[in-house]
Specification:
Elements (H helix, E strand, L loop, with lengths): L2 E9 L4 H12 L5 E6 L3 E3 L11 E10 L3 H14 L16 E7 L4 E2 L4 E2 L8 H10 L4 E2 L3 E2 H7 L5 E3 L7
Antiparallel strand pairs: 1-4, 1-5, 2-4, 3-4, 3-10, 6-7, 8-9
Helix pairs in contact: 3-4
């Protein structure tokens, strides 16, 4: 049996658009999975930090996968690692070479030691909700409601679609 998994992608260091494009290529190669959609890229202001840092480039990808949620997370961390991310010394809102978050996994709600689905802060972030709605216009976040309604609550967050998309 397979499920839809939605993955948030973000980067604000070291050629962010290229990093997202490489990450999408790697997502398309995951075992027992198929990359079915990727949103356009968006540029957004950093959220939750008082330190100055570059804007982020963000996107959301949809996977059809027969992997378990923990296995998907393992692959996401491996992709980050191959692109130079070292999680042990990054703060929660620190600048990133690459950040891949498992946002949704079907309609499931999970709380594990290293994984919470739906992502616990996705409903507060325009840089997640806007690209999610591009590829899943009727998306609902279990326990929170319709993504379209949630996006209205964060409309003051700065986000702009970029001119270039790297996956089709």
């Amino acid at each position: 049996m397979s499920s839809f998994a939605y993955v948030g992608l973000g980067s604000n260091l070291g050629h962010p658009r290229r990093r997202l494009a490489r990450a999408l290529t790697e997502l398309a190669r995951l075992p027992r999975s198929r990359l079915v959609a990727a949103s356009p890229n968006y540029v957004s202001a950093p959220v939750g930090t008082s330190e100055p840092q570059p804007d982020y480039v963000n996107a959301v990808a949809a996977l059809r996968t027969a992997l378990a949620p923990g296995a998907v997370l393992h692959h996401l961390h491996a992709i980050e690692h191959r692109q130079g991310r070292r999680r042990r010394h990054n703060g929660r809102n620190a600048p990133r070479l690459l950040d891949l978050d498992l946002l949704l996994f079907g309609r499931r709600r999970l709380t594990l030691s290293r994984l919470v689905v739906p992502h616990p802060r996705m409903h507060e972030r325009a840089f997640v909700l806007r690209p999610l709605l591009d590829i899943a216009p009727a998306a609902t976040i279990p326990g929170r409601g319709a993504a379209r309604q949630l996006l209205r609550r964060v409309r003051k967050q700065r986000i702009a679609r970029t001119r270039h998309a790297f996956w089709r």
